[in-house]
Design a protein that fits this description.
126 residues; alpha+beta; six-stranded antiparallel β-sheet; 31% strand
Amino acid sequence: MQIDGWCLEDGEVYHADAPSTFWIPEREDRENLQPGDLVKLIFQISLDDPDEPIAVERMWVLVRERLPEGFLGLLDNDPSAIGENDEFWSGIELPFQTRHVIDIDRGDNSTLALALREPRRSWSRI
């Protein structure tokens, strides 16, 4: 959060806290994501507002590729809590893990093409 101005919430923790009301996809489905699939993640976004310093938004991410520690995707929503910017907006590349996924919408050829396009901003892989 301090470096990027946002972070991901752990969907598995939400589900463990309220298993009858907070559904998440089966682990096997979350582990077997493919490029072009859409996943919903919960984001905490830092705001420049002392009365409300953090916004929480659920947004869709297009899966781009599998990484050793999880996945890399493209943000497919514009956050409503902040204005358009080059650091955190639709089209930026970001990493996530299986534990962050709270919903899955399986992709097709059109979502695969979108996922493979040049990102607005690439995620550093160092």
